[in-house]
Amino acid sequence: MDARSAKRPADAPRGERVADWADGRLGIYTLAKTQMRKVFPDHWSFMLGEICLYSFLILILTGVYLTLFFEPSGVEVVYNGSYEPLNGIIMTRAYESTLDISFDVRGGLLIRQIHHWAALVFVAGMLVHMMRVFFTGAFRKPRELNWAFGWTLLFLGILTGLTGYSLPDDLLSGTGIRFSQGAILAVPVIGTYLSFFLFGGEFPGHDIISRLFPIHVLLLPGIMLGLVVAHLILVFYHKHTQYPGPGRDQKSVVGMPFMPVYMAKAGGFFFLVFGVLSMMGAIATINPVWAFGPYRADLVTTGAQPDWYLGFSEGLIRVMPGWEIDAWGHTLQLGVFIPFTLFPLILLAIGVYPFIEAWITGDKREHHILDRPRNVPTRTALGVSWLSLYAVLLIGGGNDIVATHLHLSINAITWSVRIAVILVPLLAFVITKRVCLGLQRRDRDKVLHGRESGKITRLPHGEYVEVHEPLTQGQRFTLTQHDQLPPYDVGPLVDANGVERKAKPTRRLRARLAHAMYGQNAHIPKPTPEEYRELTSSEDHH
């Protein structure tokens, strides 16, 4: 009989009896026994995902507090509060309640600052975390769905940030809403209808804040919370990925158990993240809405800039030429519509990349060992190319700020960004790929000849050579454990009898992409055991 099912003595501690009662109805013991001792690898880069999780929890906690005092109303009132420079100014109730939170609610300004900083760290953490997953190939089977969940969280995080950024109805956020409304109007045929539906009439209307509020505090966070739970469940269900090294393979994980080691470290790390965000909120002011004043449709702030994660989209629009097409009595604003379309398409390309790579390689195996970025040069080059495009467009989104601070011509900056949008990603791709190949050559030399020791010795015949220290078996394994499988090939197009075999265009495209990404020019052959034995057994090996 199971010891847990045996009746405990009457004098057993109350906690044990409560645990028995809960386990008999929920099966907690069995679940805890199988999951609480789950092993997790120990590497600093795995903490990036935890930063995202903890900043999301802090966002929820601070958001609940702010919701108690914020009024999402577009009704106009005359301000007569603690911030005297704005006394007598007409503003919306949303902006007035934001000022009240900042100056009258105990701890309100600190909570606002923590909330905003947590939002920035959340999106930044997700981007860096996804780049770690991308460069190491952690998205491969069986984790494609987890990548899709993470990508959706990033996209929803950007939208949530946009809606929250717009709620205070200050001059800066109102300018951002005006920017969004202009992009919506550029949509052919239905743009005007979408704008009227969203704003409840002509811009700015009185309904936009009350409509954004439930989206920001209920709809988007609810979806994100569900995705976070699903993401964590899959992390537990799949074995955790780990970096290559001795004792690590596709069937075993080297690390610490979830309970108590990892749980204790994770709990301490949560309070560390909370403390850092609190310190940032206390000493680094962000979004001082009282300095901008209330939004008016006839005004715009000097140097109006969105949060950094939306600078990418604004950069697309700012550097795009002002092209227009007049047809059938309608004007199509290509200068706005094309960038407005490119922004989600570029993000979508990131979301579907794991499925594209799996199709190109035809690899059906499960992968629990991470790639070293240098061993997959084309993928690494694509990632760096995307990051360089993001950086260029971020500069384009702040071309006026760059011009005023560096005393440069805004036209020169705009044209430089237009050229760099095409040139910089290509250069980044080529340079990154060559660097990866160079690092592969260095790894090959290390395995065959050992590590340079810096010691110079003289041979009997007078030659001076540097002594190389051989690598340990574990170090050699780490440098040579990766696979170098031949790329997908359509095979001969003519059989032995001279009959031509037709290959579908998709198969031809797949073969070309496979050879470009994983062909002979995409990697340096790793040393074979025969090469190593031949060199190490040679009498003149140093």
TrEMBL record:
<dbReference type="InterPro" id="IPR027387">
    <property type="entry name" value="Cytb/b6-like_sf"/>
</dbReference>
<keyword id="KW-0813">Transport</keyword>
<protein>
    <recommendedName>
        <fullName>Cytochrome bc1 complex cytochrome b subunit</fullName>
        <ecNumber>7.1.1.8</ecNumber>
    </recommendedName>
</protein>
<dbReference type="GO" id="GO:0046872">
    <property type="term" value="F:metal ion binding"/>
</dbReference>
<keyword id="KW-0812">Transmembrane</keyword>
<keyword id="KW-1133">Transmembrane helix</keyword>
<dbReference type="GO" id="GO:0008121">
    <property type="term" value="F:quinol-cytochrome-c reductase activity"/>
</dbReference>
<keyword id="KW-0249">Electron transport</keyword>
<dbReference type="GO" id="GO:0016491">
    <property type="term" value="F:oxidoreductase activity"/>
</dbReference>
<keyword id="KW-0679">Respiratory chain</keyword>
<feature type="transmembrane region" description="Helical">
    <location>
        <begin position="408"/>
        <end position="431"/>
    </location>
</feature>
<dbReference type="InterPro" id="IPR005797">
    <property type="entry name" value="Cyt_b/b6_N"/>
</dbReference>
<dbReference type="GO" id="GO:0022904">
    <property type="term" value="P:respiratory electron transport chain"/>
</dbReference>
<feature type="transmembrane region" description="Helical">
    <location>
        <begin position="147"/>
        <end position="167"/>
    </location>
</feature>
<feature type="region of interest" description="Disordered">
    <location>
        <begin position="522"/>
        <end position="542"/>
    </location>
</feature>
<feature type="transmembrane region" description="Helical">
    <location>
        <begin position="212"/>
        <end position="237"/>
    </location>
</feature>
<feature type="transmembrane region" description="Helical">
    <location>
        <begin position="46"/>
        <end position="70"/>
    </location>
</feature>
<keyword id="KW-0472">Membrane</keyword>
<dbReference type="InterPro" id="IPR016174">
    <property type="entry name" value="Di-haem_cyt_TM"/>
</dbReference>
<feature type="domain" description="Cytochrome b/b6 N-terminal region profile">
    <location>
        <begin position="18"/>
        <end position="244"/>
    </location>
</feature>
<keyword id="KW-0349">Heme</keyword>
<feature type="transmembrane region" description="Helical">
    <location>
        <begin position="114"/>
        <end position="135"/>
    </location>
</feature>
<dbReference type="Pfam" id="PF13631">
    <property type="entry name" value="Cytochrom_B_N_2"/>
</dbReference>
<keyword id="KW-0479">Metal-binding</keyword>
<feature type="transmembrane region" description="Helical">
    <location>
        <begin position="179"/>
        <end position="200"/>
    </location>
</feature>
<feature type="transmembrane region" description="Helical">
    <location>
        <begin position="266"/>
        <end position="286"/>
    </location>
</feature>
<feature type="transmembrane region" description="Helical">
    <location>
        <begin position="376"/>
        <end position="396"/>
    </location>
</feature>
<keyword id="KW-1278">Translocase</keyword>
<dbReference type="GO" id="GO:0005886">
    <property type="term" value="C:plasma membrane"/>
</dbReference>
<feature type="transmembrane region" description="Helical">
    <location>
        <begin position="334"/>
        <end position="356"/>
    </location>
</feature>
<feature type="compositionally biased region" description="Basic and acidic residues">
    <location>
        <begin position="528"/>
        <end position="542"/>
    </location>
</feature>
<keyword id="KW-0408">Iron</keyword>
<keyword id="KW-1003">Cell membrane</keyword>
